[in-house]
Amino acid sequence: MPGYQIVVLGSIVPDPLQTLEPVATPQGPGLKNEAMLPHVLDPWAGHALYEAANLAAKVPGSKVTLVALGPKQKLQQVMMAVGQKVPFELVALDGPASGFTDAHEVAAKLADAVQKLPGLDRSALLLFGGWESASRGAGVTLQMVGERLGIPDQFFGVDELSVKDGGALQILERVEGGKHQVSVCAGPPAVLGWATGNLPEPKNNPQVGMANMRGVMPALQKAPATPVGTGGVKFESVAVPKVARETRVVKDMSPDEIAKELVEWISQD
Amino acid sequence: MDTTLLLSPTEADGTLPRAALEALSAAKAAGGTVIVGLFGAKTGPAAAQLAGTGVAKVLAAEAAPLAQPRYGTDAAACAALARAAGATVIVAPALSRMARVAAGVAQRLGGRIDTHVSALSTEGGALSATRWYYKQRIEAKLQRAERPWVLLVDPGAYPAAAAAGGAAPAVEPVAVELGPELQRSQVTGVHAPTSGEQTIRPDAKLLFVAGAGWTKKQADGKPNPEKAGELILGFLRAAGASLGTSKSLTDQAGEGQKVLEFMTHLNQVGQTGSTPRHPRGLSTCCHGEEPHVVGWRFIRERRAINLDANCGWARGKADVVYVADAFAVMEKVNALLTAKKT
């Protein structure tokens, strides 16, 4: 079986433990002190990258390319950590990673970058990414990139990919009710938007890190400026919702009394 | 004024999924004429369900290949329906089947898309959508200049539209080209959870959230995951509740520790999990701050059982927090629920 060209689309998001506060900027909504916030690889894009590396390790001749749109200083910081995990080649685009940018514009830039990849072979192409980001959280960018590339086989909420005899791909996608839809695709090209998959986060491997860094730094240095905006969106309001509830703290009830109160509450129509 | 198209697949028996009737309520909130576009192997029963709901007409793409939820054929059907309707606003329920194709359809139509919409409103003839950013931590209300504008409405955001009686709307068939190049993928089935027991029930009235505290050392100084599993599953069966969990608990399972075997990433709620909508939620043994608590952002009534009254899941987030041992309380709750059933 010839190898796959696995292209992973993924960017960076603020560390989930940070407090996020929206602010108005000349480019549209943004986050307060966004440039100062520590960032991480988007969690679901991370799963996609680790699944890509796992597949590439099983199928000789495969190659993993990570295409990332984000501010290159931030990308560099995140790649120093991610680059220790699995082997990949980076293609960096220097632009905003804000959740408030327009997915349509982002998809156009990413599709263009994928089409310009040297030696791109559609018959071996697997386009990976997270099924949603932790920033815009829309689950649309990867799909629009796939559509722009004319790929009619797309799968989202993917938790498992296996290669069958003859090269067909069996894919498990999340559907309603905590179930998985099972599909068999004839083969590449295909788009797979990953949910969590089944793999733990790989441990750091210094040898992988050294090999990756030889490509990561030049990729960051030659990252083209890639401006994206908010498209035709007019934001009427952007705010952190008021979430504080008046919590009744119950400290002096026995388990029997609490259970009785809970059952009455659960049984209400 | 926009013309609105409600797009929905039909179920295997040809009926409308409940989420489609909820999305119809959202489509009506968008104002203007509402047309419904249905696709599937069978659409007649769904069209009949729309009698008295105020829709102007129904467009139906009906073909055997549309029995399978897959990108190639579903996207072709949706695009054909949208073009036939000439709609400027397209509303659809955020079912997995629609989420798989909606952005591709928007791209194909030269339009734009927003998903996870929780509300639609019109002021001065301008349509606004409300949705969340950064994993339900920032809420935004926005308008778009571009058309067509595709909007995926989250299930549970609106009540299901009710039929007010009257004749069924007129049905116009729409032809769709579904060539072999669109059918390279075949849906071969649906897998139930590996535990053999369904713990995720989107229609349940109660979400039960189990935190990592269930697997920690108990009063006797030892962890007791077997007892925890028994209590949790016992409650789910007795109350018909849906199970959610924190990331830390599912990660433990993934790392091969002997914990709660029925827990998978599918149960995970919060920052990297789902944000389900249920009328009530009960969190037990949960810890963590804002990023994790987004898991029950859309739960209306919330109670918590926790030994720490100041836990991020409880104070300011729940209506009631019981400072107690969840093992002791849930044992009593299960006994009461079981007695009530017999």
Describe this structure in words.
The complex is a heterodimer of chains A (269) and B (342). Chain A is α/β, with parallel strands linked by helices. Chain A has a single domain (5-221), classed as HUPs (Rossmann fold), CATH 3.40.50.620. Helices cover 29% and strands 29% of the residues of chain A. Chain A has 6 helices and 14 strands. Chain A has helices at 43-58, 72-82, 103-115, 141-148, 206-221, 255-267, and strands at residues 5-9, 12-14, 22-25, 28-31, 39-41, 63-70, 89-94, 125-130, 154-163, 169-175, 179-185, 190-194, 233-239, 248-250. In chain A, the strands form 3 sheets. Chain A has an 8-stranded mixed β-sheet, sandwiched between helices. Chain A has a two-stranded antiparallel ribbon with strand order 2-5. Chain A has a two-stranded antiparallel sheet with strand order 3-4. In chain A, a hairpin with a 3-residue loop joins strand 10 (169-175) and strand 11 (179-185). The longest helix of chain A is centred in the N-terminal third of the chain and has 16 residues, at 43-58. The model of chain A has no long low-confidence stretch (mean pLDDT 95). By secondary structure, chain B is α/β, with parallel strands linked by helices. Chain B has 2 domains: 4-182, Rossmann fold; 206-341, Rossmann fold, CATH 3.40.50.1220. Chain B is built from 8 helices and 15 strands. Chain B has helices at residues 18-29, 44-49, 71-85, 96-109, 225-239, 247-254, 290-293, 326-341; strands spanning 4-9, 34-40, 57-62, 89-93, 112-123, 126-133, 138-144, 149-153, 171-173, 185-191, 206-210, 242-245, 280-284, 301-306, 320-323. In chain B, the strands form 2 sheets. A 9-stranded mixed β-sheet of chain B has the order 7-6-5-8-4-1-2-3-9, sandwiched between helices. A 5-stranded parallel β-sheet of chain B has the order 12-11-13-14-15. In chain B, strand 2, helix 2 (44-49) and strand 3 form a beta-alpha-beta unit. In chain B, helix 3 (71-85) crosses helix 4 (96-109) and helix 5 (225-239) runs parallel beside helix 8. The longest helix of chain B is centred in the C-terminal third of the chain and has 16 residues, at 326-341.
